[in-house]
Amino acid sequence: MNVAKDPALLTPANTLDMRPLLLANMACTMSMMAFVALIGPISRLLGMATWQAGAAVTVAGVVWVLLARPWGRLSDRLGRRRILLLGSAGFTLAYWLLCLFVEGALRWLPGAGLAFFGLMLARGCIGAFYAAIPVGCNALIADHVEPQRRARAMASLGAANAVGLVVGPALAAVLAQHSLSLPFHVMSLLPASAFLVLLFKLKPQPLAQSHAPSPVRLSDPRLRRPLLVAFSAMLSVTVSQIVVGFFALDRLQLAPTDAAQAAGIALTTVGVALILSQVLLRQLEWPPLKMIRVGASVSALGFACGAAATTAPWLWSCYFVAAAGMGFVFPAFSALAANAMQASEQGATAGSIGAAQGMGAVIGPLAGTLVYALDPRLPFLAVAVLLLLVGLWPLPRDQRA
Asked: Which pTM does this prediction carry?
């Protein structure tokens, strides 16, 4: 992909170069996902309970929900570049705090309670500042990319995140062979690099509005569909992530080691499918509503077939199909929300979308495990039904063919 000449990455007026945004998103996602890949063995060494490890992962999503809208409103007042710099700088400092704590905890082995408190504090700080990154990026695109190109530009951000989703855990696994703390030291360089790239390569951009920013309510009718799609998409993804390992154990009857490997391959196919589908999407230039209808339907098919999986390759294929559909849905709801709102509302709008995604990320793991306890196939079927409802939600009258 030639990013130097792509009109979705560099607008015709040369006012917005998206390459710093792509690098920052990929770097921060890699750092975030590295922790998820390492928390299992780290929690065992520190004597933490399973629920404590899960809470240390979830707290970042909770804080993301709480702060996405405030970051969005702040970006309407201070500008997108300042928010991105504040977010990446704070993310860097918070990740260094996590790095130091993990290094010390693995060396001196404090009690499980102290280890839990330290990880919760560090992850909470990381989530607080990470919330500014997608908000600032999406609002910046809404400001300076014309509506017909917004979905393509947001698909580029999605592809960058997908690369981080794949590379982050893989790199962490390779580095962990030498030391469990080494991945954190290496990953701590990524958000620092993102800050420097944004500082020196992202040019100051004027706000699109010339008057005071307008407040945006979550109950705004214009946001009803984008918020529902954002919540449903993130909930579906997190449900599939949390149940895949258990499904491999209980439904596929694999040994623990084989089940872990099968789950890892399934999640890797998710990242690959997201990258491929969002690269394809950039060539199609479909309107957001069509992307949601097609993507949600394809993803629902993948999840429904996954419920019937009896072998690991079957499960991997279903995850690939489901993720390919999600690759169409994720940039679509951001573009749909941006296109529905005024220039003075874009920061708050991006924050609202971020809050909806964060809520899905918080509720998904809990809902997935509760439903899984009834039957291992139910989470996949429930997600498929939800996505079908989202995808088949009737179009507005003026949008119908």
From this structure: 0.75
